[in-house]
Q: What sequence folds into this?
């Protein structure tokens, strides 16, 4: 990837300003208001969003940077501090097998990087283990986000120019769920590796792209879907040169994400599947549960008896999914690799259980920001998209700060 000094300086400055403002806002909103509890976004959220709902979760009640941890953060922190079999984390009862920690539903690379970054931080700051891991988790997420911005800029620079690349990267930062890129969540690291692999493959640097894709597999299962854009880039390369042993070797190298996924499956895959299926209710093979989840969500959206919190929640989820799908189709011709990757991510997300967290998973779909970057050449669209995105982000990050359900 190539990036001129001006663009790199502007990207870094924009990223730093966004991080400072977002972190400052989360501190400000907690000091200024307190929401009415519990949250009725979903049927189960009232049980998890009362005043004392977090008291039995030691990783979510550490005061230091507490605004940046909630929900899945518990498990990343636990893996980083103790490991997968942490007695402080809830167990899932598996029929016919020993109970498994909920940690097994989460991939290892992000918490491993948190643990590595915690080592120098522990020497610099007198913090306890959970606080140090929290700081490391935010640090890794933010650095990953910067990498994702650089990759996204490179993806669109040939079409939109340097300023268009900055605009596209900015739209990633201000997307309504973009605040997850600055929390103890794995989205920041994933966009760095996935978008980096897409940008490198578009530039013909397929070996490096395959290496990044192999690492992305160990952050989120969607990383294995990067095989699609890598394969497309390799086939496009073959159109321009004869098929030789070197090209064959390159093609085999591109299978690294599949090998990486196989290694993960051999070591952690069985436990992951059992916890996902028995606790989180997510599985690509359970079509009946998926159909039931979607039917229930649509009925909740349409029913006059549904509380407004649930209706708004599902409306945002469906709008995000619809926008992502349209963006992938509109960018398919110019950006076939990223668009097909995005479509595959949407399919995996939409058909693996109840429609939840869609607005967060959309962060992994580069076409959303590419198409917005194209339309952003219109001043009216740019101002309207920015206003809507920031207002919705303000709403969602406020909810997250108070441990309410967002995605």
A:
């Amino acid at each position: 990837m190539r990036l001129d000094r001006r663009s790199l300086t502007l990207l870094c400055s924009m990223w730093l300003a966004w991080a400072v403002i977002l972190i400052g806002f989360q501190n400000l909103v907690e000091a200024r208001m307190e929401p009415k509890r519990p949250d009725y976004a979903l049927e189960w959220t009232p049980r998890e969003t009362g005043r004392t709902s977090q008291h039995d979760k030691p990783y979510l009640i550490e005061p230091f940077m507490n605004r940046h941890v909630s929900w899945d953060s518990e498990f990343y922190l636990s893996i980083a501090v103790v490991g997968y079999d942490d007695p402080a984390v809830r167990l899932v009862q598996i029929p016919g097998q020993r109970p498994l920690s909920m940690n097994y539903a989460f991939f290892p690379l992000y918490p491993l990087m948190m643990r590595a970054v915690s080592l120098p931080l522990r020497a610099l700051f007198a913090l306890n283990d959970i606080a140090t891991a929290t700081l490391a988790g935010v640090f890794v997420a933010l650095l990953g986000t910067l990498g994702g911005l650089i990759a996204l800029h490179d993806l669109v620079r040939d079409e939109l120019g340097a300023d268009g690349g900055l605009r596209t990267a900015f739209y990633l930062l201000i997307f309504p769920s973009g605040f997850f890129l600055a929390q103890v969540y794995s989205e920041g690291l994933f966009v760095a590796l996935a978008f980096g692999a897409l940008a490198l493959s578009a530039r013909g640097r397929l070996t490096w792209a395959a290496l990044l894709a192999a690492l992305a597999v160990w952050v989120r299962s969607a990383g294995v879907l990067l095989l699609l854009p890598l394969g497309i880039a390799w086939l496009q390369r073959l159109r321009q040169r004869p098929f030789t042993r070197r090209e064959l070797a390159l093609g085999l190298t591109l299978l690294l994400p599949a090998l990486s996924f196989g290694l993960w499956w051999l070591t952690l895959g069985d436990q992951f599947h059992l916890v996902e299926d028995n606790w989180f209710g997510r599985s690509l093979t359970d079509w009946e549960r998926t159909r039931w989840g979607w039917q229930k969500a649509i009925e909740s959206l349409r029913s006059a008896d549904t509380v407004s919190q649930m209706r708004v929640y599902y409306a945002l989820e469906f709008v995000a999914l619809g926008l992502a799908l349209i963006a992938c189709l509109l960018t398919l011709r110019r950006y076939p690799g990223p668009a097909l990757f995005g479509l595959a991510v949407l399919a995996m997300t939409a058909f693996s259980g109840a429609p939840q967290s869609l607005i967060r998973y959309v962060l992994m779909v580069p076409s959303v920001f590419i198409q917005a970057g194209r339309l952003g050449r219109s001043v009216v669209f740019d101002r309207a998209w920015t206003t809507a995105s920031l207002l919705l982000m303000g709403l969602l990050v406020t909810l997250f700060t108070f441990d309410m359900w967002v995605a």
Remarks:
- The chain has one domain: 5-263+368-401.
- The radius of gyration is 21 Å.
- The chain has a mean pLDDT of 94.
